Automatic annotation (TrEMBL), chain A:
The chain crosses the membrane at residues 39-58, 70-91, 97-115, 136-163, 183-201. Its EC number is 7.2.1.1. It is found in: Cell membrane; Endomembrane system. PANTHER family: ELECTRON TRANSPORT COMPLEX PROTEIN RNFE, NA(+)-TRANSLOCATING NADH-QUINONE REDUCTASE SUBUNIT D. It is an enzyme of class 7 (translocase). This is Na(+)-translocating NADH-quinone reductase subunit D. The keyword Membrane applies. Pfam families: Rnf-Nqr. Keywords: Cell inner membrane, Cell membrane, Ion transport, Membrane, NAD, Sodium, Sodium transport, Translocase, Transmembrane, Transmembrane helix, Transport, Ubiquinone.
UniProtKB/TrEMBL annotation, chain B:
PANTHER family: INTEGRAL MEMBRANE PROTEIN OF SOXR-REDUCING COMPLEX, NA(+)-TRANSLOCATING NADH-QUINONE REDUCTASE SUBUNIT E. This is Na(+)-translocating NADH-quinone reductase subunit E. It comes from the Bacteria. It is found in: Cell membrane; Endomembrane system.
């Protein structure tokens, strides 16, 4: 049991896929201007990674090692098509916001990385746990970044105003005291800087992670 | 003109790394030295220039709704667009493999410099991203698709070259220990992206003119016709 829970807990902090392993950055940065998009993206990756890990792990003894990358790509692509169709059917507006980034889950390095490093050599149950753990680690960063960018950039969380009403004439909450939204947080470069700061904070807390 | 505009737009304004964050994984992993960065960047230009036009052909003649009509009337109603992810990634993986074999056969020296990076590229988001953006932006002709592929490849090349050069120099700077390596690279990339945003003004002049023309048209329509016609006109203009 101790070993299994480690599979889930490790990637959440000390072996985080984004801040330590540097995998899956592309999608993590581009869609985090809103908290809702980050959450949906995390759920999509959770589904693809957990199911994909199990499928690859079940097939690990019959995949010839020379063509394994193509086999892995086909498995991910199939799962991503499922996610894409589900999003288009039930959350059309959101799937417009995520645009090509749903498709780019295919080339998300976390997924290929976990297939290569874990699912090819472990039993389905352990691979499933590893998939859940790593996608939760990914989700944590996405949600932190999405939280700050939406809060500071547009003063809302999940689309609900939390800092008061910014419309001139009916100012309320913080805005009545002269607070203004920092529109810059909504632009893409800020995602990089926010992730940089997260890495900074994490490594200051855990000196073992510092690179030289 | 169209080609030049798209070319510069895909290098500077829609830069793969700074505007859409594509190919970040290899961008961060392979940018420690300028020489390796140049190798990977060249390989990305090469592969994008081949796969984007190829996927454009696939999209036009197989995947789009009604694209199969060249096979015969009865195929005109087929819509295979849901298959595009799988088709694109299969094309990319095959092309990368093929290019690797051809380069190895005909130009061993190029293979030695590009070779090790080619397999890496099959799973580089920038390559699939190029094809997916080509599809979602509805690029009109094969020539434009090639221009777009080459342009975005060069944009990616510039980005990785710049960060590799900065990282080589930053080794001599006194960066806070916790920020060393990955952290500072992220923040520098962020600052570079802010810099690249200023290119956004480069091509908008033409667009604005077009917009004012459109609003002017709508206003004249408003003046001398009924509301119904306005609705129709704005729809057409939209």
């Amino acid at each position: 049991m101790g070993k299994d829970s480690k599979l889930i807990l490790d990637p959440l902090a000390d072996n985080n896929p984004i801040t330590i392993q540097v995998l899956g950055i592309c999608s993590a940065l581009a869609i985090t201007a809103e908290l809702e998009a980050s959450i949906v993206m995390s759920i999509s990756v959770l589904f693809v990674l957990a199911v994909g890990n199990v499928v690859i792990s079940l097939m690990r003894n019959i995949i010839p090692s020379k063509i394994r990358i193509i086999v892995q790509l086909i498995v991910v692509a199939t799962l991503v098509i499922i996610v894409d169709l589900v999003l288009k059917a039930f959350a059309y507006e959101l799937s417009k916001t995520l645009s090509v980034f749903v498709g780019l889950i295919i080339t998300n390095c976390i997924i290929m990385g976990r297939f290569e490093a874990f699912a090819l050599g472990n039993s389905p149950w352990r691979s499933f746990l590893d998939g859940i753990g790593n996608s939760l680690g990914y989700a944590v960063i996405l949600i932190i970044v999405g939280f700050f960018r939406e809060l500071l950039g547009s003063g809302t969380l999940l689309g609900i105003p939390v800092l008061g009403n910014p419309i001139p004439g009916e100012l309320s909450g913080l805005y009545a005291y002269g607070y203004e939204n920092n529109g810059f947080m909504l632009l893409s470069p800020m995602a990089l800087i926010v992730v940089g700061i997260i890495i900074w904070v994490q490594r200051t807390k855990n000196k073992a992670l510092i690179e030289d | 003109m169209e080609h030049i505009e798209l070319f510069f737009k895909s290098i500077f304004i829609d830069n793969m790394v700074f505007a859409t964050f594509l190919g970040m994984c290899s961008y961060l992993a392979v940018s420690k030295k300028v020489t390796t960065a140049v190798g990977l960047g060249a390989a990305v230009i090469f592969v994008l220039a081949i796969t984007v036009p190829l996927n454009w052909l696939l999209d036009q003649y197989i995947l789009q709704p009604g694209a199969l009509s060249w096979l015969g009337e009865e195929y005109a109603s087929y819509d295979l667009s849901f298959l595009s992810f799988i088709m694109f990634i299969a094309t990319i993986a095959t092309m990368v493999q093929l290019v690797e074999i051809i380069v190895e056969k005909f130009s061993p020296s190029l293979y030695n410099s590009l070779g090790i990076f080619l397999p890496l590229i099959a799973v580089n988001c920038a390559i699939l991203g190029g094809s997916l953006f080509m599809q979602s932006r509805e690029i009109a002709t094969l020539g434009l698709a090639t221009t777009y592929g080459v342009g975005s490849g060069i944009g990616w090349f510039l980005a990785i070259l710049a960060i590799a050069a900065i990282r080589e120099k930053i080794r001599y700077s006194n960066v806070p220990p916790a920020l060393r390596g990955l952290g500072i690279t992220f923040i520098i990339t962020g600052l570079m992206a802010i810099g690249f945003m200023s290119f956004g003004g480069m091509l908008t002049g033409g667009d604005e003119e077009e917009k004012t023309e459109k609003t002017a048209q709508i206003e004249t329509v408003k003046d001398n016709s009924t509301t119904k016609e306005i609705a129709n006109n704005t729809k057409v203009i939209d």
